[in-house]
Amino acid sequence: MRPTGRTSMLSRTADHLYWMARYTERAENLARMLDVNSRMSLLPQGAEILEQGWIATLTIIGLMDAFRQRYDAVTSSNVIEFMSFDRDNPMSIYSCLRAARENARAVRGTLTSEIWETLNATWLEMRDASCWTGYSNAGNAGMRRTSLRSATEAEVGNFFEWVKYRSHVARGVIQGTMLRDEAWHFTWLGTYLERADSTARILDVKYHLLLPRGEQAGGATDYYQWSALLHSVSAFEIYRRVYRDLITPRRVAELLVLRDDMPRSLRRCMSQVHMHLESVRNSQSAETERRAGELQASLHFGRIDSVFEVGLHEYLVRFLGQVRDLGDRVSRDFLVSATD
Question: I need a surface site. Which of 31, 65, 231, 319 has the fewest CB within 10 A?
Fold first, then answer.
């Protein structure tokens, strides 16, 4: 049954806010994923190993086939260009920031002026700078053009830092200026669902690639690779505070899966998802709320030994399926896409 009147307006508003938040978070997480690969490409390693890292990244995002249609070789510059600046790639950082801004524009009356100005400024800067496929740091106020293929690693890294910085600003403005009503809950619901998905993907692809070296050698190269993975989810300092020991694969997995005090962990994300679902529940969302609560409880009471008994890859694949199911159910229960 199609909603009418006020109900339809609220569903459409919720839809735009939810996707505004998801696209903003997605742009940041893509930058994190590309940044960790870029950092690892600096290590001494064969071309085949470097290529496997980029292939794994494209595969876990689901864009390997689309990339092959555009490029002959899997190289750092090709993947970064495709995933950062490609206007025809709906999953590029460029496309995500554009979509975040368009969803925000559709609900300007619901957002504070500070939120709109932040997202709009981010998009305008990205649009203007993307006339050239590369960036170097010009401070937090902006970027200046450079050629991607001639850009230094520092310049590429500065672009990823800019994306993360703009996402941080957007979340801070949302937290600091938005009324704590249903609009606020839908915004954070989208944020944490997207973050849970991204953390699982980053951990899955990087753990698979790093585990053999991490268990066999444990030397300087392995330390740098695991450090890069932790840096990619802003967890390096947190790991040091929590464990105060060498970086080990099992503890990295425990931190990113089961620690509630780790802001980007699966457990923390799902706790937030369940809380926000409770706050916006309606007459048809009981099953969605139950499934979110069940997943949150499994993470709350879970142990890392049990995760590894199942197999980390298998566990993360199942988790990603559950997050995807929750996203589909949120759309059916609340958003305009479920009824229009």
Answer: 65
* DSSP state for residue 149 in the 8-state scheme: G
Question: What percent helix, strand, coil does the chain show, rounded to 5?
Answer: 75, 0, 25
pLDDT band at 152; cut points 50, 70, 90? low
Rounded CA gap, 57 and 75, in Å?
12
DSSP structural state of residue 217: T
Burial of 145 (0-12, 13-18, 19+ CB in 10 A): middle
Enumerate residues 6+ apart whose C-beta is below 8 A from 26.
91, 96, 194, 198
Cα 47 to Cα 54: distance, rounded to the nearest angstrom: 11
pTM of the prediction? 0.88
Instruction: Give the CA count within 13 Å in the CB-facing half-sphere of 60.
Output: 25
In this structure, the dihedral spanned by the alpha carbons of residues 211, 207, 291 and 289, taken in order and rounded to 10 degrees, is 140
Question: What is d(CA 27, CA 84) in angstroms, rounded to the nearest whole number?
Answer: 9
pLDDT in tens, 77-118: 899 999 999 999 999 999 999 999 999 999 999 999 999 999
Strand locations in the chain (E): 135-137, 143-145
How is residue 140 annotated by DSSP? T
Q: Maximum Cα–Cα distance for the chain, whole Å?
A: 64
| Secondary element (H or E) of residue 135 | strand 135-137
